[in-house]
Design brief:
The protein is built from seven helices and nine strands, in the order ααββαβαβααββαβββ. Strand 6, helix 7 and strand 7 form a beta-alpha-beta unit. It is of the alpha/beta class. It has a domain of 145 residues: Rossmann fold (3-Layer(aba) Sandwich), CATH 3.40.50.150. It starts with 7 loop residues before the first helix and ends in a 14-residue tail after the last strand. Helix 1 packs antiparallel against helix 2 and helix 2 packs across helix 4. A seven-stranded mixed β-sheet has the order 5-4-3-6-7-8-9. The protein has a two-stranded antiparallel sheet with strand order 1-2. The chain is globular, with a radius of gyration of 16 Å. Bound molecules: S-adenosylmethionine. The site of S-adenosylmethionine has 26 residues, from strand 2, helix 4 and strand 4.
Length: 225
């Protein structure tokens, strides 16, 4: 049984985590504040609760993981979020990254291919946020390599699984001036890539550090094995 209690001990541990991420180079205060607010222990299997505020990934079922807090903070920082923006996340997983985005005061659309994970995320999110806050969070089950056309365009898109290449559908669902952050690579290790859509024809691509994600599986990603 999971006990959804948020104690002063948990709060203290995640303030330490936010400080640790700051010392590792995360500077965006909006992101650090969000990490300090979200009860990450809600998003992990109960067995891992004691480790929830360590800077580590953990298994969440279906062969998937909740990303390491540093990775969540790194991707969130690259998004250069402004309150009120509309953000698409591909790979809801546990719902933790979506929660960090929500705590940055943006409207979140998040899509997950495993129905079981999405259903679990809904339950966790209901423990972590009020109904009013959850009005800004929209979840769906499906193939996020095709984006979520119904609500496009988005100001920001974040992909939390490793892609073999950048899906064009995602760029097409960004506003002009919008930003896509996505780990890309053909091996176990991917490069974090940030794409700014300048206009319908031009993009700017920047390449950042190495990360290791579970694969992005779908029509415009890795094929299911
Ligand atoms: N953001 C998640 C979190 O905070 O817990 C971490 C997610 S995990 C590293 C990546 C997730 O992407 C997995 O749950 C996986 O099932 C999902 N995924 C992989 N390919 C996908 C696709 N084409 N569409 C949607 N989700 C996908």
């Amino acid at each position: 049984m999971h006990h959804y209690q948020d104690t002063y001990k948990h709060k203290g541990l995640r303030n330490l985590l936010a400080q640790q991420l700051k010392s590792k180079g995360i500077q965006d205060e909006l992101v650090l504040k969000a990490i300090g607010e979200i009860p990450r222990h809600f998003f992990l299997p109960a067995d891992f609760e004691a480790h929830a505020y360590e800077d580590k990934p953990f298994p969440i079922g279906e062969g998937q993981t909740i990303s390491q807090p540093y990775t969540v903070a790194y991707q969130s920082q690259l998004l250069e979020l402004k309150p009120g923006q509309k953000v698409l996340e591909v790979g809801t997983g546990s719902g933790y990254q979506a929660s960090v985005l929500l705590a940055c005061n943006v409207e979140v659309y998040s899509i997950e291919r495993h129905a079981a994970l999405s259903e679990k995320a809904v339950k966790t999110l209901q423990k972590a946020f009020s109904p009013a806050q959850l009005e800004k969070l929209h979840l769906s089950v499906g193939d996020g390599t095709q984006g979520w056309p119904e609500y496009a365009p988005y100001d920001r898109i974040i992909v939390t699984a490793g892609a073999p290449s950048v899906p064009k559908a995602l760029i097409s669902q960004l506003v002009n001036g919008g930003i896509l952050v996505i780990p890309v690579g053909k091996d176990e290790v991917q490069k974090m890539v940030r794409i700014v859509k300048i206009n319908e024809k031009d993009i700017k691509t920047e390449v950042f550090a190495d990360f290791s994600f579970v694969p992005l599986v779908g029509k415009n990603g890795w094929k299911e094995s």
